């Protein structure tokens, strides 16, 4: 038997923080790729520390539903899972290269394939582009549009910005959008000044966050000038300084995220068969879907 554990942060304050985790887990269950699929959280139940004990499978693939390598993926999750011999050096990563490490959970003797976070996987690039397609209702969106990939950014962890810059550069190399730029909340260049960084009339803004919460639903819309008060909502697209801003909300709520989780597990050796193809078919928009947006 093989099992999948999706490890996310969760929240005591925001009841919707765990919604993407449950949604992606349900989508993966539908594929039948794993005998067992479990969600686990730092701030909600079931907790990281207990989840492995609830699974009968001897081989478990753990995929962190986090954007970057850092405190939670390198310290908290391995500690709580009791991964014997864990060291971040096992990932042999410079902040965006984490793949997997196979270890043993000391209290259960189960084999744990501990994967890198979803946010640094190459497949996340396609999810960001898919997010732009979803918000505009245009599967060919790009010409005449700018794309802003937004991260938190912080001086406390340089890896926080690496994933944002990495995917921004990959999308820029596609030469799909007229302009593609990385913006941040807490470092330069800042999302507050989004219109200063683009010449395009239309700008798609995609926050590289797992779940919608305080930052994506309050800070960013107000900082960009989409609304004076987030409680009043905002238009999509919204008019700001002569530009149209297509704000998507957190990328982690995109259905295609389930594919990234599956890709992470497959890279670690999980036998998922044609599950990624199955899930991609489930999430691919039809002509009717696009026409109805």
UniProtKB/TrEMBL annotation:
InterPro entries membership: CbiX-like, Sirohydro_Cobaltochel/CbiX
Signal sequence bounds: none
UniProt GO MF annotations: lyase activity; metal ion binding
Organism of derivation: Halostagnicola larsenii XH-48
A biological process term (GO) from this entry: cobalamin biosynthetic process
Keyword annotations: Cobalamin biosynthesis, Cobalt, Lyase, Metal-binding
Protein name listed in UniProt: Cobalamin biosynthesis protein CbiX
């Amino acid at each position: 038997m093989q099992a999948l554990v999706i490890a996310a942060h969760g929240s005591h304050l925001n009841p919707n923080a765990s919604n993407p985790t449950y949604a992606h887990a349900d989508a993966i269950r539908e594929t039948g790729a794993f005998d067992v699929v479990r969600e686990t959280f730092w701030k909600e139940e079931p907790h990281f520390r207990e989840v492995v004990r609830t699974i009968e499978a001897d081989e478990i693939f753990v995929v962190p539903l986090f954007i970057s390598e850092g405190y939670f993926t390198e310290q908290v999750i391995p500690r709580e899972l009791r991964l014997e011999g864990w060291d971040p050096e096992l990932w042999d990563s410079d902040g965006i290269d984490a793949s997997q490490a196979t270890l043993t959970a000391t209290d259960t003797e189960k084999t744990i394939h501990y994967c890198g976070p979803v946010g640094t996987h190459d497949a996340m690039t396609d999810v960001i582009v898919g997010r732009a397609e979803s918000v505009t209702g245009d599967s060919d969106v790009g010409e005449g549009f700018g794309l802003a990939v937004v991260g938190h950014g912080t001086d406390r962890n340089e890896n926080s910005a690496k994933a944002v810059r990495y995917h921004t550069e990959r999308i820029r190399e596609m030469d799909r959008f007229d302009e593609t730029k990385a913006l941040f909340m807490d470092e330069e260049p800042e999302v507050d000044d989004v219109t200063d960084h683009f010449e395009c009339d239309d700008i798609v803004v995609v926050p590289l966050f797992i779940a919608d919460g305080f930052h994506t639903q309050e800070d960013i819309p107000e900082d960009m000038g989409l609304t004076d008060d987030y409680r009043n909502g905002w238009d999509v697209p919204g008019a700001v300084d002569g530009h149209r801003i297509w704000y998507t909300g957190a990328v982690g709520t995109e259905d295609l995220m389930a594919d990234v989780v599956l890709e992470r597990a497959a890279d670690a050796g999980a036998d998922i068969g044609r599950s990624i193809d199955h899930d991609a078919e489930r999430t691919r928009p039809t002509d009717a879907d696009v026409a109805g947006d």
